Structure prediction request, 448 residues.
Amino acid sequence: MNKRNQITEGVIWKQLLLFFFPIVFGTFFQQIYNTADTIVVGRFVGKEALAAVGGSVNQIVNLIVEVFVGLTSGAAVVVSQFFGAQDRKNLDKTVHTSFAFSLAAGAIIGVAGFLLSDAVLEAMNTPVELMADSRTYLHIYFMGIVFNLVYNMGASVLRAMGDSRRPLYVLMTACILNIVLDIVLVVAAGMGVRGVAIATVSCQGVSAVLVTGMLMRDHGFFRLEIKKICFYGASLKTILRIGVPAGIEAAMYCVANIVIQVFVNRLGTDYVAAWGTFGKIDAVFWMVVNAFSIAITTFVGQNYGAGKTRRMRKSVRVCLGMSYSSAILLSGLLIVFAEPLYRLFTTDNQVVEIGVYMMRYLMPSYFLYVAIGILSGALRGAGKVLVPVILTCGGVCIMRITWMLAVLPVFPGIETIMLSYPVSWGITAVLFVIYYVKRFPKAENEKK
Prediction:
């Protein structure tokens, strides 16, 4: 801690990019990690397997993972603030409590997910021909979900302390291993969806071990010790105060998407396969915006902890500018290359035709989400989480569900389903901007 903290003192745009790139590259490898599964089952098993992995299963897994990632953001915010304030004692308690929480949550979610998989798949109107593969994947996935939670918690802690590079190295290793295992288990051994699930869980196990090992090394200011992993009451309360609302916010997006998936499932296997593949292709957009969101959460957290609110606000403006530029560029590229991207996943012409239409209809509106992602991350970094959750719940979840129930019956079709996204993003973005401006008004007497 003797060296200068660049996040609280360096050039903002430069430090944002230096922090952003390892995150986005890490997310890129995470997407390759996930996309490899989809490509392998789509091309070597069939469109039914593609729909199984990319349909209801994908929404269920996303719900669990995104909610927990939201919860880890509570730990990340507290860690970044204590790190910025150089409070070693509370930092130590926060990290060890965070790991205890991830282990306990992994055990509970694993058992519950395994037992409830069938009921949830049926409730989502999963097509009968997809049920067996969907069930197989979820049962294996939930048996090893604790690895995923431990990795996400460990990576969040490292990033919160300004280390975004080593989580990247872990994901690179896991990505390469996942591709190798997919080829061995699915292509060579012919294990189908079961092979993909085993490959995924195995790689998550490796990721959990690696990131835990990194935290157990002496960082000069902090070191994870297995014997100290337990629940510290005050630390757990603080983590949950920020993490639970963030988890609820993440859940709102996922619940809304699950409801939409239910209506897409009614359109048949081709639409399910196209919609699930769309979710893999547009991941390149989300990984960039989410990387900026993670970066600004850490920047705001450390500067807020150091009392530098003027610098905090400036970093938000800079991050918004970079995010909008990236979002517009990426959306344009995805629209132009929609068809060749879809053909990476499947050779079925009907699925490709439907998917390309979906992308060209929906992608032009993606820039609307940027303000939500960045301002939500910034507010979370400052510990302001309740109102953003309310805005997300109302503007995204309730609005999309209401749209499905009220508008879709009058104007049935995939276009009406897709239109729920830009409508909800646009309204929610305006509300976030209004709240952020009111919560952090400009003041001339703030510390630089």
Remarks:
- The chain is about 80% helix and 0% strand.
- Residues 444-448 have pLDDT under 50 and may be disordered.
- The two ends are 20 Å apart (CA to CA).
